[in-house]
Write a structure and sequence with these properties.
Layout (H helix, E strand, L loop, with lengths): L16 H5 L4 E6 L5 E6 L7 E6 L8 E3 L7 E8 L2 E12 L4 E12 L29 E5 L7 E6 L8 E5 L5 E5 L5 E6 L5 E10 L2 E8 L8 E7 L7 E5 L5 E6 L7 E6 L4 E7 L5 E7 L9 E7 L3 E5 L2 H14 L4 E6 L6 E6 L4 E7 L5 E8 L2 E9 L3 E7 L11 E8 L5 E8 L2 H4 L4 E5 L18 H7 L3 E5 L9 H5 L8 H15 L3 E11 L1 H11 L7 E5 L5 H10 L1 H6 L20 E6 L7 H13 L4 E6 L11 H17 L7
Length: 666
């Protein structure tokens, strides 16, 4: 079995499973546009949630609370206008006629007292003040632009079943609406400029049988639409608009422009071409633009976002660069230099990682007088502060005050070479050395989902990484080939390599840890969810002898079915279907060589629960050691898990590792 050394008696109390999985004590903190109020989600018992509102001029006073005796599944809250909240809830949803069992989101508008919960575009008659949401079907509209410079109105797309997606200018206070654009199944991805005008949209069509997505732009609300570029699905080189500028002829776009990394570029609409780069990072992918919301310079570019080991901002604005530096000095933790080699171009550089936490700037009042500041990282659950006038910092609260960072592991960005020479990034978390010694340790390999995704060096909302590190495990999160966010070369290297070279990358990570004395070769397991669950099933089948057991959460074990689904959709048939290929775990279930545990929610709409059921049935028929947990009412994404589900899942994995993961594997 996988067991860790006992902690020393003098060590601080270990956080419990519930400490990691309970609803955060404080989350989703934001400030109103006029700076007069702060809103957040709070939980006093780790199960139910409430919306809390504070006055910024009297933070010491108790907040006004909404829903503390009602809904326990608030998903998010923020300000729609100065004194209006926009609230999203999630709940199970059944449609018997379509045999649909899943979840749905609903968005409501409320005043700061919670005296009403109304859908936008609800014909003025739907009032859900009792918050009895479990039996409501989704209805109304979705906000696509809050129009910060308009004190009353928002842009809303009609999502009611009978609508084709018409767009309305809606008075957020009265729900009076006027149509500004007719909807159509042919168009989507609407983009709104600095003046609140819908200036861009996309449409799909065919060119000699090849599917493409065309970007259309118009000069004004009454001007005709004009195509400015085409992206062919099979090329997988999607460009997107990330911002408008004061010049109506210049937009900011995200594009690789034939290189390995995504950058931000200025694009001339009339000439239909890139003018020049606005921001490029040689090592990492650009991800967005930070713009001013102040009336004095609304829309001015303050900085650019990019994804290194964690999200970063490259500040152009001197004022905000100085504030970010001062915040780091005031509440930040030390950074560690890392020698880094870019997996794409092979360039070398020294970068600074944040192994404990980093400080980021959250929502701001329109005049930038007030700013929400977040301190968070791989070893630090989020903490929230209010920055006033760029000089005064006031602590607002902690998301998980019961977790002592001293009990958690140390996380670092590492790289290792795969057997074919490709450099694989990874995040390595090792347990506290003062408690568990220098190693080697029992080790978990945790590949991420997707597979077109990536991990970040941030707080793990599932709690999985640090819970097991606090119990003496080393945890490796390999950014295997096929991972997005590290450049085109690493991403495209995963094509048709499911369970093959993608799995080799995970295995080579184990060998890297063994060679460094981090992993005990007799105590290694793989634990993954979604695509990571697929990877765990593949690891149980592959003849490598590295793992003592495999744990698969909602793993897509039927690769043929994934190939079928992506071929059935006309866009995916050219965009993703050609990349699907490799080892099909379901077809090779009889070849499983190690004990396997699976868990799956019965409301999963991403990977149907039948895939785990069928895999388990084949293992049992073949006499293979398998444990299976089916979780009632659980969906695929973490937002569809209740705290109780998260606690039960982590407890089950923990128990399985301690009692049923056999030593020696084969």
């Amino acid at each position: 079995m996988l067991t860790a050394p006992l902690a020393a008696a003098a060590a601080p109390a270990l956080p419990t499973i519930k400490d990691f999985t309970a609803a955060p004590a404080l989350s989703d903190v934001s400030i109103s546009p006029d700076g007069k109020h702060i809103v957040a989600l709070r939980s006093l018992d780790g199960t139910s949630q409430m919306i809390s509102i504070w006055n910024t001029d009297n933070l010491a006073a108790p907040p006004y609370n909404i829903g503390e005796h009602g809904v326990s599944r608030f998903l998010s809250v923020g300000f729609l206008k100065n004194d209006l909240l926009v609230i999203t809830v999630v709940h199970p949803f059944d449609e018997p006629q379509m045999a649909y069992r899943g979840h749905t989101f609903e968005t409501f508008v409320s005043d700061l007292k919670g005296s009403y919960f109304n859908h936008l575009l609800a014909n003025h008659g739907v009032n859900h003040a009792n918050l009895d949401l479990e039996f409501l079907a989704a209805e109304g509209g979705a906000v696509i632009a809050t129009l910060p410079r308009d004190p009353r109105h928002v842009l809303v797309v009609d999502e009611r079943a009978e609508s084709k997606g018409d767009v309305y200018l809606v008075d957020a206070y009265t729900d009076e609406a006027s149509k500004v654009m007719a909807g159509s199944d042919r168009f989507g991805n609407l983009k709104i400029d600095l003046n609140g005008i819908i200036r861009a949209r996309t449409t799909a069509d065919f060119d000699n049988g090849k599917l493409y997505v065309a970007q259309q732009v118009r000069e004004s609300q009454t001007a005709p639409w004009e195509e400015v570029w085409r992206d062919y699905a099979r090329d997988r080189t999607e460009r997107s608009i990330v911002g408008f500028t004061p010049d109506p002829n210049v937009i900011l776009i995200s594009s690789t422009e034939g290189g390995d990394k995504t950058g931000i570029y200025e694009f001339d609409i009339k000439q239909k071409k890139v003018i020049e780069p606005a921001f490029q990072h040689k090592m990492f992918e650009a991800s967005g633009v930070v713009m001013s919301r102040d009336d004095k310079d609304y829309g001015r570019v303050l900085g650019f976002e990019y994804e290194a080991e964690s999200p970063h901002v490259y500040w152009l604005d001197d004022h905000w660069r100085n504030i970010a530096k001062a915040l780091d000095q005031a509440i930040g933790d030390p950074k560690t230099p890392v020698d880094w080699i870019d997996p794409g171009a092979g360039l070398h550089a020294t970068i600074n990682e944040s192994p404990i936490s980093s400080v980021s700037i959250g929502s701001q009042s329109r005049d930038h007088k007030y700013t929400i500041v977040i301190k968070s990282g791989p070893k630090q659950p989020p903490q929230y502060y209010l920055l006033t006038d760029g000089t005064t910092l006031t602590a607002l609260g902690k998301s998980r005050p019961s977790i002592n960072p001293a009990t958690l592991g140390d996380t670092h960005l590492v790289q290792y070479q795969a057997r074919d020479g490709l450099l694989i990034p990874a995040f390595l978390t090792t347990p506290p050395k003062d408690v568990y010694g220098p190693g080697p340790y029992p080790t978990l390999i945790e590949p991420h989902g997707g597979p077109w995704a990536r991990d970040e060096m941030e707080w793990d909302v599932t709690g999985w990484v640090q819970y097991f590190a606090s119990r003496g495990y080393a945890v490796l999160q390999p950014q295997f080939r096929g991972s997005e966010g590290w450049g085109q070369k690493l991403w495209r290297a995963g094509d048709k390599e499911w369970g093959q070279k993608m799995a080799d990358d995970n295995d080579d990570g184990v060998k890297y840890l063994i060679a460094r004395g981090v992993a005990d070769p007799r105590r290694v397991a793989m634990f993954g969810y979604s695509y990571g669950g697929y990877a765990a099933l593949a690891a149980a089948i592959r003849p490598n002898g590295l793992y003592q057991c495999a744990i698969s959460g909602a793993g897509a074990g039927d690769l043929d079915h994934i190939a079928f689904v992506t071929s059935d959709n006309r866009y995916e048939k050219e965009f993703q279907h050609p990349t699907i290929g490799g080892l099909d775990p379901l077809a090779h279930a009889r070849d499983v060589k190690i004990p396997v545990m699976l868990f799956h929610g019965d409301r999963d709409r991403t990977v149907d629960v039948s895939e785990s059921r069928e895999f388990v049935a084949k293992l049992r028929a073949a006499g293979k050691p398998v444990e299976y947990r089916e979780v009632k009412d659980m969906g695929h994404q973490y937002v569809f898990w209740t705290p109780a589900m998260a606690e039960q899942n982590l407890a089950a994995v923990d128990t399985y590792l301690r009692t049923s993961c056999k030593p020696g594997g084969l």
